[in-house]
């Protein structure tokens, strides 16, 4: 980047956080969002260390993921109807109690079924990223350029949390005690949500539902867009499993987290730069172009694994491939904001997150099966195929919206 572009990027974000209340609710949201990258790996380390079963640990965390995907839109609907503070705080407390119950069940050797029952309470975890985006949309509804910058920052924050969260969780569980990651993540989540909810001046007003209110699922252009999010989630889920298997096959499984973090790092950097750039044309036209770039770059990990078999080259390929992720997600979330009916923004964005989570689950299962049958190198065709599906769905959504 040139000196001028760096200064332009800094200026864009300085103006964004000069808005009254923006820094306060962003700080609270970042604290609340950071544990999202910690919960799963903390649970896996805690359960597998105590029960000696990765299968059990994976099943428990998958149950929580699926439950959150199902309950999340209903929680978001309540947020839209009654306000962020009134719903998010009790929902977060319930979720934190579920995490603490899981911790106690593991620590005191409770039967395996109690782990599933306890972790089901985590389904009430509110979509803090969606609530933050809803605040930006409320504050910046008259300034689309500034909203684009805000959405880009939120995507970069997501990538940062998912990049650093597992590292912090693994460090806490390894250096303190196995339950430390789960305990700290629950405390951070509650603390962050309390700080976030206390910023009432920037909170969007609640919107009461009527008989005429329709779900965002029925909004024009939303179904194919949400399916594109699902396919995008399948990229993430399959890429994670296949990369871990590839590193394990090389005898360096411990490096898998760091290699995957390179993809998140590339996406985080690209998101911040993309936020300072003023893209031309409507988001509906930009979205398939971004997905096309993501699909093209997603072939790089496959080529790196197939042609070189080197973890170092694979890491570089993932870094470059990740640079298309943030622009794709930012543009997709912008479309969700545009197409979601007024007063239902939290629900609309949570549906997008539900699509991603469902895709991650499907991608993980498909990627794991591909590794078992084809080997880790050939299994990189799974994220490439998922990216191609996302492109087809994005093109279909664009054609439908243009009619």
Automatic annotation (TrEMBL):
The keyword DNA-binding does not apply. InterPro entries: MFS, MFS_trans_sf. The chain crosses the membrane at residues 12-32, 53-75, 87-110, 183-202, 223-247, 253-277, 289-307, 313-336, 348-371, 377-399. It holds the Pfam family MFS_1. Keywords: Membrane, Transmembrane, Transmembrane helix. This is MFS transporter. It comes from Streptomyces endophyticus.
């Amino acid at each position: 980047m040139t000196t001028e572009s760096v200064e332009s990027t800094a200026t864009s974000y300085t103006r964004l956080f000069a808005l009254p209340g923006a820094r306060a609710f962003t700080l609270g949201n970042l604290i609340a969002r950071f544990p999202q990258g910690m919960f799963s790996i903390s649970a896996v380390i805690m359960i597998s260390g105590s029960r000696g079963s990765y299968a059990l640990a994976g099943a428990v965390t998958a149950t929580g993921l699926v439950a959150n995907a199902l309950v999340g839109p209903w929680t978001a609907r309540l947020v839209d109807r009654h306000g962020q503070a009134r719903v998010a705080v009790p929902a977060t407390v319930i979720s934190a109690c579920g995490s603490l119950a899981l911790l106690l069940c593991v620590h005191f050797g409770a039967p395996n079924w109690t782990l599933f029952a306890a972790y089901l309470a985590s389904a009430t975890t509110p979509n803090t990223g969606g609530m933050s985006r809803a605040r930006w949309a409320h504050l910046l509804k008259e300034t689309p350029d500034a909203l684009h910058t805000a959405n880009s920052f939120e995507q970069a924050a997501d990538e940062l949390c998912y990049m650093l969260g597992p590292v912090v969780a693994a460090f806490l569980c390894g250096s303190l005690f196995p339950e430390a990651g789960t305990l700290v993540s629950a405390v951070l989540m509650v603390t962050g949500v309390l700080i976030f909810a206390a910023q009432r001046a920037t909170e969007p007003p609640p919107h009461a539902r009527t008989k005429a209110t329709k779900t965002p699922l029925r909004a024009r252009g939303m179904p194919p867009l949400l399916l594109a999010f699902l396919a995008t989630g399948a990229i993430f889920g399959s890429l994670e499993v296949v990369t871990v298997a590839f590193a394990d096959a090389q005898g360096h499984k411990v490096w898998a987290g760091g290699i995957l973090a390179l993809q998140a790092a590339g996406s985080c950097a690209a998101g911040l730069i993309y936020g300072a750039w003023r893209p031309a044309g409507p988001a509906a036209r930009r979205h398939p172009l971004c997905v096309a770039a993501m699909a093209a770059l997603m072939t790089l990990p496959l080529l790196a694994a197939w042609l070189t078999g080197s973890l170092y080259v694979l890491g570089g390929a993932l870094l470059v491939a990740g640079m298309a992720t943030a622009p794709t997600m930012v543009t997709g979330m912008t479309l969700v904001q545009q197409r979601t009916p007024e007063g239902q923004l939290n629900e609309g964005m949570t549906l997008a997150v539900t699509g991603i989570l469902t895709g991650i689950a499907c991608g993980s299962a498909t990627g794991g099966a591909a590794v078992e049958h084809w080997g880790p190198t050939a299994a990189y065709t799974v994220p490439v195929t998922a990216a191609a599906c996302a492109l087809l769905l994005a093109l279909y959504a664009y054609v439908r919206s243009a009619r």
